[in-house]
């Protein structure tokens, strides 16, 4: 007994990988050669528990060859599987007993492969997952379900669920393995059933915790969902498990059913409270990767309107989705422009989503049917914010303001209005007012742009000087200015070549420019 335990311990340690691989090959040959050597399967399965990574990899490959061959030969019991002790019944033939026994070994192998998806080595995880999906493919070809299913298509959903549930763990980041699994999502049947399994897993975790979903689990779910590329063609034929015959009502072959499953899982996931970072990730891909593949995109109205009311970067990111719903699905949002107006605070010039926001703001304000007071309020608020904006933002803001005036000639009085030449003190515009209708922008003028004509950056001065001349009817293209950075401005200035330089200058007189200033006596140059 002690010798047997020592032999098993040495097997699990697997110190000599080459000898272990040789032994595994011998055991595999023995099992496939004669049923009398069936007990050698236990030795092969034990190596799956080894501490040596190379040994585990070799054991997984051996198990793959073994059960691939047994499935093809039909040497595993098909149908409802009796308990192992029931296989000893005198009423069963030796053939039936063998197949039941080997089917139990097959189930043990699958359980071990699922456990290896949690291994510390990514190489082991990857091989275990690929082996599971290879077995899934073979089990679909040679079903182990009841005999009534043999002549029709049967997808081994149980195996896929075991794998996907391990990808969606609650406390361990599975992103590397999810990236590897993404390749299998190109198969239409894998994609369809994965969507349904994700939905079940989200519900299972929620029912277990009865609290907000764990953040690691949320990230795993999002990582898997966002890696799904929905098909564009209505005829689907790329299946991992081939069909023996065409089934007209088979859901994985229909694009409409894919969209239903896709919509259902996203709606189920997004109804839970998400972390701020994940909220942003969802909103970033919503307009391109989610809404176009839903049967009823309007179902996202509540999610987007709530996000739009949150404020800050989340509101900016919600604009893309709202833009799609408003322009393509006739969403009515009465306070949309009021909310958009309130987003024009100083922080909007510094967030990394600045280009996306102003691009959409320009689109929303491009309609010539907008009321004059609304356009005037946006032009005035942008003008006031420009007084504290960095140069790279001003290079985009000034042309945007001018485009608004070009689109709406009724706003031209804002450029020249003598009654408000006194600047901020005499300006009737109410900056603190969040309702553009009450801001009194039409009574004001864009004196801020005239102030920018004295800006320290020459290009800003040239841009602001446009209002001193008659505005052309041709709008300025601001697309290239949206991503402009201070680094690019600096690089551009550094590359300039000056042919002439000033040779005379007036020496500095004191710190403040006064000739008899006390600082001039002690710190004069």
The best one-word shape is elongated
Rg of Cα set:
35 Å
C-alpha termini separation = 98 Å
The description of the largest β-sheet is: none
Overall pLDDT level: 85
Give the SSE string: HHHHHHHHHHHHHHHHHHHHHH
Fraction of helical residues = 40-55%
**Strand element count:** 0
Number of helical runs?
Answer: 22
Strand content: under 5%
Unreliable residue stretches:
1-5, 147-152
Keywords:
single chain, 525 residues, mainly alpha, elongated
What can you tell me about this protein's structure?
The protein is built from 22 helices and no strands. The chain has 525 residues and is mostly helical. Among the domains are: 1-150, no CATH class; 365-497, no CATH class. Helix 13 packs antiparallel against helix 14. The termini are far apart. The relative contact order is 0.05.
Give the topology, please.
Layout: H1 2-13, H2 17-33, H3 40-46, H4 53-73, H5 94-116, H6 122-141, H7 157-167, H8 175-181, H9 188-209, H10 215-226, H11 255-270, H12 276-290, H13 301-310, H14 312-328, H15 336-342, H16 354-364, H17 372-385, H18 391-407, H19 447-451, H20 458-464, H21 486-494, H22 518-523
Helix pairs in contact: 2-3, 2-4, 4-6, 5-6, 6-7, 6-8, 7-9, 9-11, 10-12, 12-14, 13-14, 14-16, 17-18, 18-20
